[in-house]
Specification:
The chain is built from no helices and eight strands. By secondary structure, it is mainly beta. The chain has one domain. The protein is globular and about 40 Å long.
Length: 108
C-alpha cells in the first residue's frame, strides 16, 4: 500500500526538506506547508477543508538557534507566543508560554 493510499501525500524540496503534505481523514483534508530559509524552518501553516487554519512562525537568535515562536489559529482571537527550551545542539526539549508554563498547541 503506497503512502497516498493511506491518506498522506508528502512533497519535498530538492534537498529533501518536507515542503507540503496533504492528509485525508474522516472526510476532511488537511494541507500543511513548511517555509524554509536554506535549511532553517521559518514557519509552517495548515488549512483544513472545513476552512480552519493555523500557523506557527519560528524565531531564531543570531547564531541560528531557535528560541521562540508564535502560534495563530483562525478560531482564536489572539496569537500565542511560546519559548523553546533547547539543549546545546538546538534540539527542542520543551515549549513553554511566556510565563514558563508548558505550551501545547491543539493541532501541532
Amino acid at each position: 500500500m503506497g503512502v497516498a493510499e493511506r491518506g498522506w501525500t508528502p512533497r519535498g524540496s530538492a534537498n529533501g526538506q518536507r515542503t507540503r503534505s496533504e492528509v485525508r481523514s474522516a472526510g476532511a483534508t488537511t494541507t500543511t506547508d513548511w517555509t524554509y530559509a536554506g535549511l532553517q524552518l521559518l514557519a509552517l501553516s495548515a488549512s483544513r477543508s472545513d476552512g480552519t487554519t493555523w500557523a506557527i512562525t519560528y524565531l531564531y537568535d543570531a547564531g541560528g538557534k531557535p528560541y521562540a515562536g508564535v502560534y495563530r489559529a483562525s478560531d482564536e482571537d489572539t496569537s500565542t507566543p511560546f519559548v523553546m527550551i533547547t539543549n546545546h545542539r538546538g534540539d527542542v526539549l520543551a515549549l513553554t508560554d511566556t510565563a514558563g508554563e508548558r505550551f501545547e498547541a491543539p493541532r501541532v
